[in-house]
């Protein structure tokens, strides 16, 4: 506890390029961009695979393969290959980390929709795209959001590794603190990341309340 | 810097004994948390199904643990379990495995159709026999799906432990980074991915062996 007071009580930690606000913004930039890119890749792909049933095996296999990629190794390799200076090297491993949960949950959510529901929608004269947009996506929304939440939390907590190759973000407090045996800084950085992950968790809870139609959430709560 | 080849095979040859040692260390540090996580998650998942009020709090705690960065947890554990020890790496990984496995166990058990459960009751099965012979076998595919995710992520996460001095193959990343040398990094990545693929394949095989009926149904 004394360590936390020492870290958060120190005014030097609250300003300048090494301050908490700057580091937090950097962290949000890495995580936000990575998540956005991963969504742009995984959401359409997952929707398409779930809707058409094509390439399901390929998606599952590649998602699991991406899960196996060690973020730290990928990060140092890409930085060595591309050089430091931009944030591109840190985005690639983080996107690789975020794609699997989004892809798999989107695909399984769409595929798991009750076939009767889908048939009913077609029977009412909706076309393929309309069935996807008006019936399948809203019904699968809880699962899709769960995938996004898992991806977001993993990205936020793994973005700390970027500090190891000299990039910014909240990981700097952790990595620098470890290097200089400055435990207040290390623990403080860890607490900040954990808090951020918690905020993300709560944020997705709110998004879920807004985006999931009452019909769907009621159906889920009955089951 | 001259054009450095991505992989220098002579380096691998010379350092093979070291790499092998790291590989063994890596396997132990990944395997123990998965097995421990499963051993803890099974009873907790069972409890969560029997006493529904228990489930939400358990999953809540697990979610919080899951959202902690592995690097941070390793560091927090250093004063307790020591720098560069296997325990420091294995404790958080065990919790991550549990975070994936407890929902899988609960989902698997609740996915057992009611009429199947009722048939077992009607046939006079005791609760324990019903669990072992009816509910658990039906839950196997879902539990194993969770186990696959846990195993693959655990194998890949061990490498972060290198930042606190004990990361199995992850040590190669640190080594390559410090010397600005590609080969160890590439070797580390490839071995970790291969290791994860082998583990994944073994678990798929286990699922096929444990649920023979699902194959018959697919063929029909």
Q: Encode the helix/strand succession of chain B as letters.
A: HHHHHHHHH
Report the total helices of chain B.
9
How far do the termini of chain A sit from each other? Answer: 44 Å
The description of the largest β-sheet of chain A is: none
Overall pLDDT score of chain A:
87
| Low-pLDDT windows of residues of chain B | none
Q: How many runs of DSSP E, i.e. beta strands of chain A?
A: 0
N-end to C-end Cα span of chain B: 62 Å
- Give me the count of strands of chain B: 0
In DSSP terms, counting alpha (H) and pi (I) runs of 4 or more, how many helices of chain A?
10
How much helicity do the residues of chain B have?
Answer: over 70%
CA-based gyration radius of chain A: 21 Å
Mean pLDDT of chain B: 88
Oligomer: heterodimer
Walkthrough of the structure:
- The complex is a heterodimer of chains A (223) and B (220).
- Chain A is mostly helical and 223 residues long.
- Helix content of chain A is 79%, strand content 0%.
- The mean pLDDT of chain A is 87.
- Chain B is mainly alpha-helical.
- In chain B, 83% of the residues lie in helices and 0% in strands.
- The mean pLDDT of chain B is 88.
- The A-B interface holds A 64-65, 67-74, 76-77, 80-81, 153, 156-158, 160-161, 164-165, 171, 174-175, 177-178, 183, 186-187, 189-190, 193-194, 197-198, 200-201 and B 63-64, 66-73, 75-76, 79, 148-149, 152-153, 155-157, 159-160, 162-164, 169-170, 172-173, 176-177, 180, 182, 185-186, 188-189, 192-193, 195-197, 200.
Summed up:
The complex is a heterodimer of chains A (about 220) and B (about 220). Chain A is mostly helical. Chain A has 10 helices and no strands.
Write the layout of secondary structure elements.
The complex is a heterodimer of chains A (223) and B (220).
Chain A: H1 2-9, H2 20-52, H3 56-68, H4 71-82, H5 88-111, H6 115-123, H7 128-158, H8 171-179, H9 183-211, H10 214-222
Chain B: H1 9-50, H2 52-67, H3 70-81, H4 86-110, H5 114-122, H6 127-157, H7 170-179, H8 182-210, H9 212-219
């Amino acid at each position: 506890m004394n360590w936390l007071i020492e870290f958060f009580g120190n005014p030097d930690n609250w300003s300048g390029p090494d301050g908490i606000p700057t580091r937090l913004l950097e962290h949000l930039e890495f995580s936000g961009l990575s998540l956005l890119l991963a969504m742009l890749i995984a959401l359409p792909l997952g929707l398409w695979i779930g809707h058409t049933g094509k390439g399901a095996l390929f998606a599952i296999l590649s998602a699991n393969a991406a899960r196996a990629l060690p973020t730290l190794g990928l990060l140092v390799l890409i930085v060595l290959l591309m050089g430091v200076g931009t944030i591109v090297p840190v985005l690639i491993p983080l996107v690789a980390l975020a794609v699997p949960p989004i892809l798999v949950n989107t695909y399984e959510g769409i595929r798991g929709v009750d076939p009767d529901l889908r048939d009913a929608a077609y029977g009412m004269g909706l076309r393929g795209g309309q069935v996807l947009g008006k019936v399948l996506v809203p019904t699968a929304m809880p699962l899709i959001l769960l995938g996004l939440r898992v991806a977001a939390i993993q990205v936020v907590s793994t973005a700390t590794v970027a500090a190891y190759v000299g990039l910014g973000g909240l990981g700097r407090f952790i990595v620098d603190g470890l290097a200089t045996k400055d435990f207040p800084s290390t623990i403080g950085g860890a607490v900040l990341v954990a808090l951020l992950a918690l905020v993300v968790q709560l944020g997705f809870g709110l998004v879920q309340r807004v985006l999931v139609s009452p019909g769907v959430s009621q159906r889920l709560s009955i089951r | 810097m001259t054009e450095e080849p991505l992989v220098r095979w002579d380096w691998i040859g010379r350092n093979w004994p070291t790499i092998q040692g790291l590989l063994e260390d890596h396997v132990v540090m990944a395997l123990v948390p998965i097995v421990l996580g499963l051993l803890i998650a099974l009873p907790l998942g069972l409890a969560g199904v029997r006493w529904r009020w228990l489930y939400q709090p358990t999953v809540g705690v697990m979610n919080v643990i899951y959202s902690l960065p592995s690097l941070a947890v390793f560091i927090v554990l250093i004063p307790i379990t020591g720098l560069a020890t296997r325990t420091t790496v294995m404790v958080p990984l065990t919790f991550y495995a549990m975070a994936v496995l407890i929902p899988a166990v609960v989902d698997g058990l609740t996915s057992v159709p009611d009429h199947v459960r009722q048939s077992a009751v009607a046939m006079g099965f005791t609760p324990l026999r019903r669990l072992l012979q009816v509910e658990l076998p039906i839950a196997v595919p879902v539990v194993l799906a969770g186990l696959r995710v846990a195993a693959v992520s655990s194998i890949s996460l061990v490498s972060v432990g290198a930042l606190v001095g004990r990361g199995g193959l992850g040590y190669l990343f640190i080594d390559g980074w410090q010397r600005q040398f590609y080969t160890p990094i590439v070797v580390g990545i490839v071995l970790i991915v291969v290791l994860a693929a082998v583990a994944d394949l073994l678990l798929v095989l286990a699922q096929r062996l444990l649920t023979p009926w699902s194959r018959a149904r697919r063929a029909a």
